[in-house]
């Protein structure tokens, strides 16, 4: 069994942004040489998450609208009274409660075993941010 680590570097440009990283993960999978096993992706940020969903532009707009309505930025949040990094971002942390920080995807014959309509999304909840990353761990043969 082999264990390979990799990282995808990202920059975000909007307060809430959905970035499709499927092609980057596929490229990293091919470069890893993994034939059969699993890739686990993790966002090591408390205000950015990962998700598997359909890539369709109108649906992605609906997703952003839904998130903004679910936890409004201008809510009366205690965290914003003494922000750690001078960002009023309580809403971002609260949105993160409803999402995954990691995703695990099986790999078979060197290919990600995603469904026909599935893409891998990095979801920024507290942007814009000049530097974000997704850590990948490939396990298998």
UniProtKB/TrEMBL annotation:
It comes from Thiohalocapsa marina. It holds the Pfam family YjbQ. It comes from the Bacteria. SUPFAM superfamilies: YjbQ-like. Belongs to the UPF0047 family. This is YjbQ family protein. The lineage of its organism: Bacteria, Pseudomonadati, Pseudomonadota, Gammaproteobacteria, Chromatiales.
């Amino acid at each position: 069994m082999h264990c390979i680590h990799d990282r995808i570097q990202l920059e975000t440009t909007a307060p809430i942004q959905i970035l499709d990283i499927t092609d980057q993960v596929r490229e990293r999978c091919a470069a890893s040489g993994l034939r059969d096993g699993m890739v686990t992706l993790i966002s090591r940020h408390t205000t950015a998450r990962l998700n598997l969903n359909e890539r369709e532009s109108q649906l992605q707009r609906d997703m952003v609208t839904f998130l903004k309505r679910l936890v409004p930025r201008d809510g009366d949040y205690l965290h914003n009274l003494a922000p750690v990094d001078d960002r009023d971002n309580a809403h971002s942390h609260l949105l993160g409660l409803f999402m995954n920080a990691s995703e695990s995807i099986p790999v078979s014959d060197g290919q990600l075993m995603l469904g026909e309509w599935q893409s891998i999304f990095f979801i920024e909840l507290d942007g814009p941010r000049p530097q974000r990353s997704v850590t990948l761990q490939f396990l298998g043969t």
